[in-house]
Structures are given as structure tokens and as C-alpha cells.
Amino acid sequence: MSTAQPPSPTRPGPYDALLLVSFGGPEEPAEVLPFLRRVTAGRGVPDERLAQVAKRYELFGGVSPINTQNRELLAALREVVDLPVYWGNRNSAPWLADVVGEMARDGVRNALAFVTSAYGSYSGCRQYREDLEAARAAVGPTAPALHKLRAFYNHPLFIEPFAEQVRRALAELPAASRAEAALVFTAHSIPAAAAAAAPYVPQLRETARLVAEAVGVDRSWTLCWQSRSGSPQEPWLEPDVGSVLRSHAGDRRAAVVVPIGFVSDHMEVRYDLDTVAIPDAHALGLAVVRAGTPGVALAPLVAALVAERQTGRSGAGRCDRQFLGNRGPAHDGCPTGCCLAARG
What is the model's pTM? Predict the structure, then answer.
């Protein structure tokens, strides 16, 4: 378990590059098991279990969609951010250390980093900060300073793309059930102990509330969980999205599933929701549609966060540090002791 946040450089702007940082994924069948071993390293997960998970990737040709989506976001960022933009992953090529080395050779000295994770948890925030420091250490004294952009769960340019996707999904439901359709927000489950040590759940609840409010219809909503991967003996966040959809099927109530915990349609969305949970709900007679994720629509958000750090303003003459709701803008640096549980 991590016990302290590695010291990060404190040199302020101006910044001379932006680094897009993501989780990564396999891009051919031969990469699937090595990828899964890296992701689960230190957790004692046997290869037999990993082989079962690998079968999910086989449904998609052994390729995770996440890297294609990152390439699309990278291209969009290069259109709206007035800095050189690089891209590195935690668990697959292009590897963070290799990309930080490339940045050093290009003369980058003081860069910002956008992580494709909106919420505070060990694996969703703190571990990325540790990964950035490890990449710098691997490169050595010529490595650029790397400053992670703040969490953006309550930023208006994160809320509105989700709200627009929900509106589109509602329009796909039968007209007779549309007005009463429930919103089922879902995010990756994590161990209950990890959740207790992080702002993960309160931030997700705030995002769900803000999206529901932005849709402009007074309707019920639920926050639930998916993609559990831990030991059955260890408490994880519940309820599962499948059980929530089954309850709506029993009530004969339509629903829109909103993968609020994911910034793009990667494997947990394509398999756990599109391949398993939603078809199972359809088989029970539930009218249910999945809302899309923001994907490349995140580019204006990133541009605003970069402008905020570069100049203290968020673009178009507006004041700095935009946010919605009552929780205020997220901090730029992790407080001491935040998100220490090593599997969240």
C-alpha cells in the first residue's frame, strides 16, 4: 500500500506541453493476457481467472477500444490546445516512461498532464500521480516537470456532454414510457475500504445529480456499480447495475443507463453494459437505452483546464476554476493522506 504522495515539481506556468495520460489496453490478441497480468499484478489473481476475462476481449477481436478512443481525443486536443500534445498509457504502449523520455528529447521542461479519470480514488487519481513520478524517475534529470490537471467531475464542460447524451437516449425510448424513465448511473465498483479513504462516491453522486438536473426533467435516479473484480469475501460497492435493472423490469419502468464513471466507451462499457447487463434487461422486457460517454467531446474541457492553469482564466474571458454545484472546484494537488487505499 502506498503511504505517501511522491513529491511533485512545484514550478508554475507557463507550460510548454500537454500530456494525455490513460489506462491503456491490448491492441491484438497476443497482448491480452500480458495486459491483464500487468493490471492485476500483486493481487494474486491466477491465470485461470485471467483467461476467463480474456474471453471477453475475444468478442472484440482481442482489441480494447480505449486506445482508438484516445487517438481520437489526441487529434481533437491538437486542434484546440495551443501546446504540443503527447500521449502515454499506464498499462500498454505508448508507455508513459517512453513518452516522457520523448518529451525530454524534444526540450519540454514544464508540462501539464490530463488524466482520463474524473474522480478521486487510488487507481483513478493518486496512482496516476505516482505513475507520472515513476516515469520522470526512469527518464532522469532531464525529465520535464509534470503537473496533473485537477479533477473535473463537476466542471460544466464535463456535465453538459453527459446531459446531452442522456437527452439523446431518452429520445430513443418509446414515447409512452419516456417521461417516467429512470436514470441509472453506473461506475466501476471498488472495495468499500478504498471508497472510505477517497472522495470517489461523493463526487460520483454529485456528477449524477448535476447531470440529472441538467437534463431538465424531474425524474428519479440511482447510482449503482459494475465491473467488480475482487474476492467475493471482500466488501465492494453495491448495488450492481444488473440488480438495479432487474428491479426496474419488475416495476415495468423504462430506464436510461448512464455510464457516468467512464469518459469513453471502453471495455467495461462495451462488454459489461452493452453485452451483458442491457441485453439481460431487454430479455426481462425492460425498455432500456444506454447513454453515450463524452469521448472527444472532452476536448473543450481539457482546453479550459489548460487555460485555467496557464493564465488563471478558463477561456472566452470567463473567470478561473469553473464548477457546478456546492462542492467547489477540485484542488490541484492531493491532500496528504488522500486516496491511500491501494486498490480503489
Answer: 0.92
